[in-house]
Design goal:
The chain is of the alpha/beta class and 225 residues long. It contains 6 helices and 11 strands. A hairpin with a 5-residue loop joins β2 and β3. It binds phosphoribosyl ATP and zinc ion. The site of phosphoribosyl ATP has 21 residues, from α3, β9 and α5. Its cofactor is Mg(2+).
């Protein structure tokens, strides 16, 4: 990759966190020219490079020290942290700021016709999710013996397709659950976007730049309140 003296920030390339993260960087005075299909964007007025990637890759890029900062949803961050801990990979990071976007919750949902009497109703059931580590941690805490079915997409159709009895997926308005004949049963994790930093020590120059950017970020966030 390019000049290691430049601060590297990972941002979701295309998705629910992209626009808000890039707008925030622009609002704190970082000039960016983002061209479609390119993995990297150089700032024209600051020693900063953006790495535009899938959100799933961002926790690992920060934890492996490939980038210095990353904008990521807490759901994805916590899931990847658990996954990496399970396989003995470095899983440390520093949370710099909680941000005012990307809000959602990871919830269990069951078909409307299921006689749901609380979490015990999932004993022995199959639950489809994209977040197996968060879900298994929850089941363990609650002493529920259920199996998880990993799906990277279309989780909400799993019960209808006969693939699982229930699901555990991200919810914001609840419209997707409703459209698929599902009802929210239990909230297992509440999430929003966060800005994280790699855990190892950065150069003085990079740390000074971060210290200059954070108060500006706080100013932008406060101005919106
Ligand atoms: O391609 P890439 O891997 O980068 O993107 P992605 O498809 O994995 O992620 P994306 O862009 O959908 O979401 C990125 C992050 O946005 C998530 O990890 C969350 O932190 C956050 N976020 C906030 C959400 C939602 N709200 C959300 N509603 N992510 C997904 N959803 C989906 C949910 O999975 C379900 O399909 O929206 C649907 C439910 O929405 P409602 O409004 O119908 O309840
Ligand atoms: Zn993703």
């Amino acid at each position: 990759m390019s000049d290691s003296k430049r601060l590297r920030i990972a941002v979701q390339k295309k998705g629910r966190l992209s626009d808000d993260s890039i707008s925030l960087l622009k609002a704190i005075g970082i000039k960016l020219q983002i061209r479609d299909r390119l993995l990297i964007a150089h700032s024209t007025n600051q020693p900063i490079d953006l790495l535009l990637v899938r959100d799933d890759d961002i926790p690992g890029l920060v934890m492996d020290g490939v980038v210095d900062l990353g904008f990521i949803g807490q759901n994805e961050l916590e899931e990847k942290m658990l996954e990496r801990q399970a396989s003995g990979k470095p899983a440390d990071y520093i949370e710099l700021r909680r941000l005012d976007y990307g809000g959602c919750r990871l919830s269990l949902a069951v078909p409307n016709e299921m006689d749901y009497q609380g979490i015990q109703s999932l004993q022995g059931k199959k639950v489809a999710t994209t977040y197996p580590y968060l879900l298994e941690r929850f089941f363990k805490q609650e002493n529920i013996n259920a199996s998880t079915v990993m799906l990277t997409g279309s989780v909400e159709v799993a019960p209808r397709a006969g693939v699982a009895d229930a699901i555990c997926d991200l919810v914001s308005t609840g419209a997707t659950l409703e459209a698929n004949g599902l009802q929210e049963a239990d909230e297992i994790f509440v999430s929003r976007a966060v800005l994280i930093q790699r855990a190892d020590k950065l150069s003085e120059e990079k740390q000074a730049l971060i210290s200059k950017l954070l108060p500006r970020m706080d100013g932008v966030t406060q101005a919106k309140e």
